[in-house]
Amino acid sequence: MTRVVPVLVLLAVPGAAPAAEVEVGYRHELLTRGPDWRELSIEAGWRAPGHAGLELAVRGLERFGLRDVDLRASGSAPLGPRWTVAGEASASPEHRFVPAFSGGASLQRTLGGGLVGSGGVRWSRYENEAGITDAGVGSLGLERYWGAFRLGWTGYLATLDGEWSASNAVAWDLYYRDRDRAGVVVAAGREIESTGGPAPVVSTVLAAALRGRHGLGGGWALTYEAGIHRQGDLYTRGGARIGLRRYF
């Protein structure tokens, strides 16, 4: 099965950040129809002053009774005092259900008054027994920072095999201490799926999640996420992710 899934990202507040960090995480989700989804990941990141950074990630996934591996790299760099450009790429050796290849780019601008605007595009190529499918996603975002809070909106427009879908996500975050945060995100819209038939399947999606990061002391932190995702009449899945992060 090939799918286009909007990616919901909670961005860290600009400011002091560790030079490097590594995280190991595990996700488990239960489905009303079908076997459980599982994911084991390891991520490493490096960030310099001025928003320049590099991130590498390896994920082992189990979905639909199949197993897959996803390799990902992303980076960002400042383009002056107000602009930041970012790029990402991924590849999968066997790509049973994740993209064989993907690439994306985004541009972010500080607007003043605590406002930050962003826009981006992402392309993914799926290769399986059903053939080759290209999917595209465009996004626009607006964030507002004040005090210890962040409120963000992101809109997505996706296309697959001539079909189109749109969705929106709203996130609210509370930042506390130097590196910690807690927040909620709610998303709603439509999602496109290709099941190998003559036309993609478009379903209504509604999702909500609680996620955050809490320091444990000594350069360690716990990251967490718990949420529920309703995929139209196909299934509802709910679960959680927990991670252990080390700062250097």
Mean pLDDT over the full residue set: 89
Please, how many domains? 1
Main-sheet strand order equals 2-3-4-5-6-7-8-9-10-11-12-13-14-15
Low-confidence stretches: 1-16
Percent of residues in helices: under 10%
Query: What radius of gyration results from the CA coordinates?
Result: 18 Å
Oligomer: single chain
What is the CATH superfamily? monomeric porin ompg
Terminal Cα span: 39 Å
Main sheet? 14 strands, antiparallel, barrel
The strand count comes to: 15
CATH topology: Porin
Highest-level CATH class: Mainly Beta
CATH architecture: Beta Barrel
Order of secondary-structure elements: EEEEEEEEEEEEEEE
Count of separate DSSP helical elements = 0
Describe this structure in words.
- The chain is an all-beta fold.
- It has a single domain (2-247), classed as monomeric porin ompg (Porin, Beta Barrel), CATH 2.40.160.
- Helix content is 0%, strand content 74%.
- It has no helices and 15 strands.
- It has strands at 2-3, 20-31, 37-47, 53-63, 66-78, 83-91, 101-112, 115-128, 131-146, 149-160, 163-176, 180-194, 201-217, 220-231, 235-247.
- The chain has a 14-stranded antiparallel beta barrel.
- β5 and β6 form a beta hairpin.
- Mean pLDDT is 89; it is low at 1-16.
